[in-house]
Design goal:
globular; Barwin-like endoglucanases
């Protein structure tokens, strides 16, 4: 009985460690397709930065967050025939895997806030060290 419990524990721990691993460089080259919503940015899960309304920031789903490994990573976002960049500064607890939550400024680069939600949003990570402006 102890052996079955030990094997089950090791199996669950292995699965959880794979799910929590940071994105590989190949994953970061992938283009994701999901929806985008907006929120009032402030002090996000990356800590140390209070982003306010004027900064282009993005909150990633828990499944793309990777325990904060993607903090300070720029993301390129396309929707509605428009494009913008946003900096990962937060985690979106209620977002599905490829759903991104944008600051007001980032969302307004793609559509009016009144729209509330955009579908068919394409986004991908930019290389580390990338600076859009």
């Amino acid at each position: 009985m102890f052996r079955i419990i030990a094997i089950t524990f090791v199996l669950i721990a292995s699965i959880l460690s794979v799910l929590a691993a940071p994105a590989t460089e190949l994953e970061k080259r992938k283009t994701y397709n999901g929806k985008a919503t907006w929120y009032v940015a402030g002090l996000g899960a990356c800590g140390d930065w209070d982003d306010g309304k004027s900064n282009n920031v993005v909150a990633l789903s828990r499944l793309r967050w990777f325990s904060g490994a993607n903090c300070q990573q720029w993301v390129s976002i396309e929707a509605n025939g428009q494009s913008t960049y946003a900096l990962v500064r937060d985690e979106c607890e209620g977002c599905e895997v490829d759903h991104i939550d944008l600051s007001e400024a980032a969302f307004q680069a793609l559509a009016d806030l009144e729209v509330g939600e955009l579908n068919n949003v394409k986004w991908h990570f930019m290389p580390r060290g990338f600076e859009p402006w």
